[in-house]
Amino acid sequence: MASSFFSLLVNGQIEAGYFPSYDNLYCKFSTLNGPDWVVVSGVEEGITQQSLSSPIPSFTGQPHTLARPCVWNFPLDLAFKATNAYGWPQLILTVYGPDALGRDVVRGYGSIRLPRTPGIHTIYTPMFVPLASTYFNGFLSWIRGRLPEFRDSRFVGRSEGRDVVCVRSQGTVKVTVNIGTKDMERFGYVNRPLKAK
Amino acid sequence: MAEVHIIGTIAGASSFPQPHLSCKWKIVAGESWRLLEGDTEGMTQVDMPEDPRFSVWSHPIDLHYGTKSVTGWPKLQVQVYRRDWRGRNELYGYGFTHIPTTPGDHTLDVATWRPVLSFWDELSSYFFGTVPALKNTDMVHTPTDRFRLTTCSMGTVHVELGIVLRNFEGYGVAM
């Protein structure tokens, strides 16, 4: 029997960020999905707490020598409904932290394509920040304490215009998700290897 | 018509001799394949990584094909470029991989190579900053004419792809 839509269940957490050069970080997330997808339950955007990798403050803004992750342990509970696998949802992550003068600056952008197969998945996603287009602009932004940012963080989940940016990759975010799908087979889709009968 | 979804990420590259890499990618499929949605080609960002062992591209891929035949199954072709200190992008590697036919999530490593010249031409290319590249990049994913080339090995491009098939079973096709 055919079904008119299929569903994707996402339960998980943004577990931690590993940034060797930065500390006291928080993370914003949002979802990015195609036109045939809707979120039926859960929050599509969120912001974690600010997390120190160690209870003892580091006054320099630099992390302690024994680098530990900034744990967020931030819950993700989402359910999607779709009529087309095109535009499979992505999580867009942005990590912020204070610079030496306490101003919040961006420390990393990253995107995660949610897994297509049911099961538990542990994802380490690399993060990156855009670099200024010229050395002069880079110097100016360093003076002003405003590092280059993307106007819309969802830019990193799209293919268009990526060729004109130059980035520096730094740090990793760990996300664990449990994926469940409903009615994909009834919709005619096969999203995992068929078992030998 | 059977449908194929190719959903994933061009994650990045490792084991290249130098960092500051970007990647031009293209998906090529046979004549009986029709693109329904999505981009078949693109160019990633340039990464100047903190850790030079791995370049991050995190470039999304999302394609929806309709097909009447399983022959001409799509291939991913990559061309890696390296940005030198003058800001010029020079060719740094070619490679291809077949898109997996099995549904599910796959991690693919694409081994890459680039053409090399004779010793003297290589020396002059070092001084003039010219790098040998293929005139016709179709050679990267077709088996003809490869024997004329001399190449050297470059690094690995890492790709994560999820394959979702639709209506294949109705035609008696097992993947």
From TrEMBL, chain A:
GO cellular component terms listed in the entry, alphabetical order: MKS complex
Location(s), subcellular: Cytoplasm, Cytoskeleton, Cilium basal body
Record InterPro entries: C2_B9-type_dom
Pfam families: B9-C2
Biological process annotations from GO: cilium assembly
Keywords of the record: Cell projection, Cilium biogenesis/degradation, Cytoplasm, Cytoskeleton
Domain of life per record: Eukaryota
PANTHER family hit by this protein: B9 DOMAIN-CONTAINING, B9 DOMAIN-CONTAINING PROTEIN 1
Similarity-based family: Belongs to the B9D family.
Protein name: B9 domain-containing protein 1
Organism: Powellomyces hirtus
UniProt lineage: Eukaryota, Fungi, Fungi incertae sedis, Chytridiomycota, Chytridiomycota incertae sedis
TrEMBL record, chain B:
GO process terms (BP): cilium assembly
Keyword Cytoplasm: yes
Cellular component GO terms held in the UniProt record: MKS complex
Cellular compartment(s): Cytoplasm, Cytoskeleton, Cilium basal body
A Pfam family recorded for this sequence: B9-C2
Record's keyword terms, sorted: Cell projection, Cilium biogenesis/degradation, Cytoplasm, Cytoskeleton
Top-rank taxon, per record: Eukaryota
Lineage summary: Eukaryota, Fungi, Fungi incertae sedis, Chytridiomycota, Chytridiomycota incertae sedis
Protein name per its UniProtKB record: B9 domain-containing protein 2
InterPro entries: C2_B9-type_dom (IPR010796)
